[in-house]
Structures are given as structure tokens and as C-alpha cells.
Design goal:
By secondary structure, the chain is α/β, with parallel strands linked by helices. It has one domain: Rossmann fold, CATH 3.40.50. The protein is about 35% helix and about 15% strand. It is built from 8 helices and 9 strands. It has helices spanning about 5-20, 40-45, 95-105, 105-120, 140-145, 150-160, 185-190, 220-230, and strands at about 20-25, 30, 85-90, 135, 165, 170, 195, 205-215, 235-245. Strands 3-9-8-4-5 form a 5-stranded parallel sheet. Strands 1-2 form a two-stranded antiparallel ribbon. Strands 6-7 form a two-stranded antiparallel ribbon. α3 (about 95-105) crosses α4 and α4 (about 105-120) packs across α6. The longest helix has 16 residues, at about 5-20. Bound molecules: zinc ion (ZN) (2 copies). One zinc ion binds next to α2. One zinc ion binds near residues 27 and 39.
Length: about 250
């Protein structure tokens, strides 16, 4: 005979099945209760977004032998203020759709999946054991007010880097035009003087890991890394969920 607790438990489970179903976070088909986040089709499509081998200097996907001492074939002529970059994947569907949805609409629903992607990728980063501060890419207060949250701060808080503190002393002091609407040269110019560190910051001699959702041209990461180095940071690493602009022409 069922105990009262067993009977209550199965009653609650039936109720849950009646009112709550597990949906694929990507394509919205109903999935089994114990399927994790996505349907099998979306999991296999996502598999193509996660890279085994990426350039430690620019984050673009490269072949296993494509890493040269000064970057990869794509980035040798580029100048970066950050020392190294790591990423979870490349910015293409369906990962790109998840990141856009996360930023614009479905924060709480998508966060656990993106956190898992971020944690497993950052764990493999070369700099994993050398970080003093994890710093989210700041949003100007006006953008933050519109969106209600900073997506990079969610990612920064969720990755677990040993002994690294969460730090928000890098701030955006000037609102900038939407970066996707301008050319690469304009982006760089647009960003000059847009970031600063707070008085009383503690970046002197420290290794900082900047966190962002996407690297497109790298202009924003680069400008922030420059500001952090000017504030005395020893090394600046970058971690992003996805790297766009896989080919030079995409920039
Ligand atoms: Zn799906
Ligand atoms: Zn590269």
C-alpha cells in the first residue's frame, strides 16, 4: 500500500506533467522531463558551434595546427591589448539565437544552459588558474536601464574561477551608438573614452578576465583591456560565449 507521502508525491508529479512541460530552449518542441535544455536535433546542431580548436589570440576557429606564436593566419596583423582569449563556441545558429534570446527576452529560462557552456569552456582556458578578478563588460546605465540587466554580469557571476573575485570597477561612462550599425573603423573611434575605472579600484598588478557574451571585431574588448592596462592591470584575458567574424571579410 502506498504511504501518504508516496501518494502525494505521485499526485504532485501528475499535476506537474499536466501543467508543466519541458520544452527545447531552442526550437520549442516538447522534450522529455529529464532531457537537458534541448531536443536531440538542437543538441547535435549546437555541437557544430562548439569549437575544439580556436586561436588563443583572436578566438577564431582554427585547425589543430593553425596556432602560430603570434596568433593565427587571420589575426597576425591585428593589435590587441588583451593577452589571451577563450570562448565556448562560434557565433552561428543555433548558439547565436540562444545568445540573442538570452539578451533580449528569456534571461532566466536560458541562463542555466549558457552557464553550463561557459563553465565547461572557461575551465579549459589557459588562464583559468591565473585570474585575480572577473570583470563583466560594462553597460552604460541607459542601456542597462532599458534592458534591466547586464547579460555579461550574469555570465561572469556564474563561471567559477578559483580565487577570482567578481569586480565591477570597470564602467562605461559614455553611451555609444549601436556597434553593429557602424563600420570597424567607426567602432574603434566610437569607443574611445567610453570606458573608465572607478576611483579606488584595485587593478594594479592584477590579472583580469573580461567577460562578454560575444566578440565581434574585438574593438570593445580591446578598448576595455587598454583601460584596464592603463589602470595597472598586469594581464587582461577575455572570455566570451561566442566569437563572430570567423573570416576577415565578416569584420
Ligand atoms: Zn530543439
Ligand atoms: Zn587569431
Amino acid at each position: 500500500m502506498k504511504t501518504f507521502l508516496q501518494a502525494t508525491g505521485s499526485y504532485l508529479k501528475n499535476l506537474q506533467q499536466l501543467f508543466w512541460q519541458n520544452y527545447c530552449r531552442c526550437c520549442n518542441v516538447v522534450i522529455a522531463e529529464d532531457d537537458k535544455y534541448f531536443c536531440s536535433d538542437c543538441w547535435s546542431q549546437l555541437g557544430y558551434c562548439f569549437v575544439d580548436s580556436f586561436c588563443r589570440r583572436c578566438g577564431r576557429e582554427i585547425s589543430a595546427f593553425g596556432q602560430l606564436p603570434d596568433g593565427c593566419a587571420h589575426c597576425q596583423n591585428e593589435n590587441f591589448h588583451f593577452d589571451s582569449i577563450a570562448c565556448a563556441g562560434i557565433y552561428k545558429e543555433p548558439l547565436s539565437n540562444l545568445i540573442v534570446k538570452f539578451k533580449l527576452a528569456d534571461r532566466t529560462y536560458l541562463l542555466p544552459a549558457l552557464e553550463d557552456f561557459a563553465r565547461s569552456a572557461v575551465y579549459k582556458a589557459d588562464f583559468f588558474n591565473s585570474v585575480d578578478f572577473v570583470v563583466p563588460m560594462p553597460l552604460h546605465w541607459r542601456r542597462r536601464f532599458q534592458r534591466g540587466f547586464n547579460q555579461s554580469a550574469f555570465i561572469a557571476k556564474s563561471i567559477k574561477i578559483p580565487n577570482a573575485g567578481f569586480n565591477t570597477d570597470l564602467v562605461k561612462i559614455r553611451h555609444t551608438q549601436d556597434q553593429t550599425a557602424v563600420t570597424f573603423a567607426e567602432r574603434k573611434k566610437n569607443l574611445q573614452g567610453a570606458f573608465a575605472v572607478r576611483n579606488g579600484h584595485n587593478f594594479e598588478g592584477k590579472n583580469v578576465c573580461l567577460i562578454d557574451d560575444v566578440k565581434t571585431t574585438g574593438a570593445t574588448l580591446n578598448e576595455c583591456a587598454k583601460v584596464l592596462k592603463e589602470a595597472g592591470a598586469q594581464k587582461v584575458f577575455a572570455f566570451v560565449l561566442a566569437v563572430a567574424g570567423q573570416k576577415d571579410k565578416d569584420n
